[in-house]
């Protein structure tokens, strides 16, 4: 697995657990609001897998879980083997995904290799190509399939949307709510522009009053909803 970053100690990436977060290289989306631009463009330097496992071996008992994010982890050919090694050390595993590899998600769930999945819902399906800057209807169908897989799974999971003023408004709040209807958890994340973002000052955060309006619509159709970063 190609790893291009590691946060050795985090108390916010996996609720209830102290975690180590690893960042994988590459993504099949080009979302302008991505905050890990170097992972998408391929500019980030690689970290040997063994460096990660050396750390995890030494920190057994001090760290509870490993979060695998990116980029898009499910694009990695060595993902399953990596997770097997992590679990063999006794760690829980959380994975972030954009949902475009439902076959990978299904396989990992079937083998009981994931403890938590966080899946991004970029916007309503009609506007996906505009937001992800990739025009491929097959990808959207795969996202839909992954949403269905998680909704019908026994795993703990969440859907989440990074709220951007240029992309999210009254026009699609209800459409996104319909996508996640019945889900266990849904979170609206505050967009923060910075030097690591692809947008570089071109996009803006959704005002809190708008985020609250969005939240009110979604929390009526999911088990739990909340704001992050506001």
What sort of overall outline do the alpha carbons produce when their principal axes are compared?
Answer: globular
Strand order of the largest sheet: 1-2-3-4-5-6-7-8
CATH fold group = TIM Barrel
CATH superfamily: Aldolase class I
Q: Please, what is the average pLDDT?
A: 94
The secondary-structure element order is: EEHHEHEHEHHEHEHE
Based on helices, strands and strand pairing, what is the structural class?
Answer: alpha/beta
Helix content: 25-40%
Strand content: 15-25%
Could you provide a short overview of the structure?
α4 packs parallel to α6 (137-151).
Account of the 3D structure:
There is one protein chain. With 230 residues, this protein is an alpha/beta fold. The protein has a single domain, classed as Alpha-Beta Barrel (TIM Barrel), CATH 3.20.20. The protein has helices at residues 37-41, 49-58, 79-88, 102-110, 128-132, 137-151, 170-180, 208-218; strands at residues 3-10, 19-24, 65-69, 92-97, 116-120, 156-163, 185-190, 224-228. It has an eight-stranded mixed sheet with strand order 1-2-3-4-5-6-7-8. α3 links the parallel β3 and β4. The longest helix is centred in the middle third of the chain and has 15 residues, at 137-151. The radius of gyration is 17 Å and the shape is globular. The two termini are 34 Å apart. The model has no long low-confidence stretch (mean pLDDT 94).
Key descriptive features of the protein:
8 strands, single chain, alpha/beta, TIM Barrel, 230 residues
């Amino acid at each position: 697995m190609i790893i291009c970053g590691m946060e050795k100690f985090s108390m916010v990436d996996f609720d209830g657990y102290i975690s180590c977060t690893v960042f994988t290289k590459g993504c099949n989306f080009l979302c302008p609001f991505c905050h890990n631009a170097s992972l998408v463009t391929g500019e980030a330097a690689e970290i040997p897998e063994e460096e990660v496992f050396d750390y995890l071996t030494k920190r057994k008992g001090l760290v509870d879980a490993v979060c695998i994010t990116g980029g898009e982890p499910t694009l990695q050919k060595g993902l399953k083997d990596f997770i097997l090694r992590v679990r063999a050390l006794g760690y829980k595993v959380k994975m972030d995904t954009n949902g475009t590899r439902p076959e990978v998600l299904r396989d990992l769930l079937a083998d009981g290799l994931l403890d938590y999945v966080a899946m991004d819902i970029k916007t309503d399906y009609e506007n996906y190509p505009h937001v992800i800057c990739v025009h491929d209807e097959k990808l959207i169908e795969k996202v839909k399939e992954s949403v269905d897989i998680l909704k019908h799974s026994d795993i703990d999971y969440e859907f989440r949307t990074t709220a951007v003023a240029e992309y999210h408004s009254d026009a699609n709040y209800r459409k996104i709510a319909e996508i996640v209807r019945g889900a266990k958890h849904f979170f609206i994340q505050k967009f923060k522009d910075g030097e690591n973002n692809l947008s570089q000052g071109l996009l803006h955060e959704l005002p809190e009053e708008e985020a609250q309006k969005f939240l009110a619509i979604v929390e009526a159709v999911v088990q739990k909803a909340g704001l992050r970063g506001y």
